[in-house]
Each structure stands twice: as C-alpha cells, then as structure tokens.
Specification:
- The complex is a heterodimer of chains A (273) and B (182).
- With 273 residues, chain A is an all-alpha fold.
- Chain A has one domain.
- Helices cover 66% and strands 2% of the residues of chain A.
- In chain A, a hairpin with a 4-residue loop joins β1 and β2.
- Chain B has 182 residues and is an all-alpha fold.
- Chain B has one domain.
- Chain B is built from 3 helices and no strands.
- Classes of the chains: A mainly alpha (273), B mainly alpha (182).
Chain lengths: 273, 182
C-alpha cells in the first residue's frame, strides 16, 4: 500500500538479491497511504492511518469501559490491570511532577494522553496494522498543540497577562544587562521550540522505529536467494529484536510525552520566583 | 492519480513535518473521544471505587483501633477492680483479725471475771457452811458435855451460868489445841 504503485509491499514483489533488481529500500513513501475512501486532492479522504487512529481510540475506550464501567471495591483481573495503569500515570507522573493537590485536576487529561499515545505507538507492532500512527506528524503535532494551548492558557489564567509574559520570558532582574537577550532566548525556547520538540520527539522516534522494522523486514525478503539466505536469517532475527525494542520504545515515548506535558503544566502553575 | 502519486512520480515527496489537514482533524477527534470518555465517566467511576476502597481499609483499621482501645480500657478497669478487691480483702482480713483479737480479749476477761465470781461464791459458801457447822457443833458439843457432866456430877451443875463458863473454857482449849496442831 505504499505510494509508489511499482512497489506495494516488499513481499508482493518478486525482487530478490542476484535477480537484477535494486533493493526496494523504505523511505518517506512508506509513510504515505492511498486513501481507502475519498480523494486525496480534495482533502476529504480516509486512509489507513486515520482508521488506525479511530480504531485505537475505540480500543482504549473499550479497554477502560470493560475495566471501569462497573468497578468493584474488590477488583477483578481486568480492573486490577487497568487500575495499575491508571495508578502508574496518576501517581508516577502527575503526582510526581505537580503534587497531589495541584495535579488532581489534570489526571484525566494526562491519563487519556498517555494511553492514547501508547496505543497509537503500539499499532507499530500489531499484526496487519503494523504502522505507528504517531509516525505521521499530524498526530503528535495535534497532541502537542492541545498540550501547548492548555499550558499557555493556564499561564495567563494563573499569572495574568504581565505575569504570563514574565513566566514565558524567564524574567529575572538580577540578570542585569543580559536580561533582554535571556528573555528573547527564553521566549523563543518556551513558546516556539518547546511545542515543536514535544511533537517531533515522539514523531521521530516512531518514524525511525518504523523505518528500522521495515528495513529489516524488506531485507529479509530481499536477501532470500542463494548465499543471501544466511544473511536473511540474521536480518529476520533483527526484525524480532527490533520488535521487542520497539515495544519498549513505544511505552517509553508515551511516558516521556506525558511527563513533559506535566512539566509544562507544572511550570505554568508554578509561583514566580 | 492522487497528488501524492504525482509527487512520488516526480521524485519529490511531501515534507514529513508538514501535517495533512484531514489527519490533524481525525487525530484531534480520536484524542477528544478518548479524553471525553475517560474524563466524563470512566475515571470518575474508578475514583469513586478507589475512594470507597480506601475508606473500607481505613474503616477496618479504625474499627480495629477502636476494639483495641476498648480492650485496653476494659483491661485497665478489670485491673483496677482487681486491685480494689485485693485491697478490700486485705482490709477485711485486717478488720477481722482486730475484731477477733478484741473478742478473744473480751472473752478472756469475761472468763476471768466469771471464774473469780465462782471462786468467790465458793469461798463464801464454804465460810457460811463452816460457820453454820461450827455453830451447830458448838451447841451439840455444849449439850453433850453438859449432859455428860450432869450425869457425872449430878444436879450440881444445873446452874446455868457456871455451866456456860465451863463449856466455853473447854471449847477454847480445844480450839487452841487445834491451832497449835495446824
């Protein structure tokens, strides 16, 4: 389903090493999909990534619906697992960064964010889907944008207009002559670079992970000829290793994403010093 | 052919950092759905249950603490009662001993007194008997002696005065002998 009609999936081609055809290397085209419905020209279309995003939402909701619809004081197995996940985010991320009193209000937001991002990352290694939704910049970007709007508006609400500007620019009189420069750098760093890196950190990790998986998968197939078979085995082993590694990276990136979110919100709520 | 394919065919792909609008919309929608469900229903649900559980556990602890406190107070009460009872018993024993001692002393005094009375009564009786016997004997002896003397000397000793004098002298002599013999 790659954008280039000549190379759909590696396995659908008959291209192997020593068969006089070039290595069908993965690239940006591996992240583009023909619309399943609609027309790519009109901006009204529906593709695999969107399908996975919505399916992922349904899975997350379905899981928590099954676990927390009628929760028991003495939990069942599913509820216990869900509680462990919930508690991990609530205590391990929100309370750790913002404290219980201040953070309680943001627990649902951060919990939803964590499980949403994790699910979108997990698609990377779920058979047949095998594509991390978060490796398409639109998804990390929109999440980072929501977070950005939350913490920026919180800063204005908490400190007022001037206070918020001071907060963004790291206003500190003791810096003296360096103050304008510092304020400029701080404003640039906080208001522009921060949301960008927040989104791109997640995007790039998932993007790279997917490229690696695709690369080794294609290579396993491509090398499956003559002496190349031995190398194909190694390449396939790498696919397994990278899958396990990705499993780790997916959870880690989701964790990093919400941890940064909490840090930003905490920074917005922090008293001026 | 879609524009993507055009671009692909031209060897130029879309910048991966420029988001396609429809995907942004769907991404936002997907997240809002998740957030909405969790924030509206599911997390309040579980929070309520977690709170209930916490209360159940703390309630159990509180109950146990209450029971322990009660047990402690009952134990102290019991100990206090026991100590009081011991004290009371000791006091009663002491009192009984004192009363007993008084009683014994009283009874002893009473016995002493009765004994002395009995002895005194005996003495008086003996004295009275002795006096009565002595008086009776004195008469009998006087009469016998007079009779005997009359028989011996005839009517000459009929003179009363003389008779009495003789008898008294005789009896005095007897008594003197008895005194000397004792």
């Amino acid at each position: 389903m790659s954008a280039d009609p000549t190379q759909v999936l590696a396995f659908e081609t008959d291209c192997h090493i020593f068969a006089d055809c070039g290595f069908p290397s993965p690239g940006l085209h591996s992240f583009l999909f023909e619309p399943l419905w609609g027309n790519g020209d009109s901006n009204v279309y529906f593709n695999k990534t969107m399908l996975l995003a919505l399916l992922g939402s349904i899975i997350v909701i379905g899981f928590f619906w099954a676990a927390f619809r009628r929760p028991q004081v003495v939990p069942g197995k599913l509820q216990m697992v869900a509680e462990a996940g919930y508690d991990f985010v609530r205590r391990g991320v929100v309370y750790e960064t913002m404290g219980k009193r201040q953070g309680e209000k943001y627990v649902p937001f951060v919990v939803a964010l964590f499980f949403f991002v994790w699910m979108m990352n997990l698609w990377s290694i779920i058979p047949f889907a095998q594509f991390p939704v978060t490796s398409v910049i639109a998804y990390p970007m929109v999440l980072a944008l929501v977070v950005y709007l939350v913490w920026v508006s919180l800063t204005f609400k908490k400190h007022g207009f001037v206070g918020a500007l001071k907060n963004f620019t790291g206003y500190d009189k003791s810096l003296g002559a360096a103050l304008p420069v510092v304020m400029l750098i701080e404003a640039f760093s906080n208001l522009l670079v921060r949301p960008f890196t927040h989104a791109v950190r997640l995007f790039a990790n998932m993007f790279a992970g997917h490229i690696l998986l695709v690369l080794f998968t294609i290579a396993s197939w491509y090398l499956l000829n003559g002496i190349g078979i031995a190398y194909a085995g190694v390449s396939f082993l790498m696919v397994l290793v990278m899958t396990v590694f990705e499993l780790f990276i997916q959870a880690l990136q989701a964790y990093v994403f919400v941890l940064l979110t909490c840090t930003y919100i905490q920074g917005a709520l922090a008293e001026q010093h | 052919m879609s524009p993507l394919l055009h671009i692909a065919a031209e060897g130029e792909l879309q910048n991966p950092l420029v988001p396609p609008i429809p995907e942004v919309v769907i991404g936002l929608l997907a997240f809002v759905i998740v957030f909405g469900f969790l924030a509206w229903k599911l997390l309040p649900n579980i929070n309520k249950v977690l709170e209930e559980r916490r209360e159940a556990i703390e309630g159990g602890i509180e109950k146990a603490e209450a029971a322990q406190t009660e047990a402690q107070s009952v134990l102290e009460q019991y100990k206090a009662q026991l100590a009081e009872a011991r004290h009371e018993a000791a006091r009663l024993r002491q009192e009984a001993q004192e009363q007993g001692a008084v009683l014994i002393a009283e009874m002893r005094a009473e016995g002493q007194r009765q004994r002395e009375e009995i002895i005194a009564a005996g003495h008086a009786q003996v004295e009275a008997d002795r006096k009565a016997a002595s008086a009776a004997l004195r008469q009998d002896i006087g009469r016998l002696a007079t009779d005997l003397a009359g028989k011996l000397v005839g009517e000459s000793l009929e003179d009363h005065a003389r008779q009495s004098r003789v008898i008294d002298r005789f009896l005095d002599g007897l008594e003197e002998k008895a005194e000397a013999a004792r």
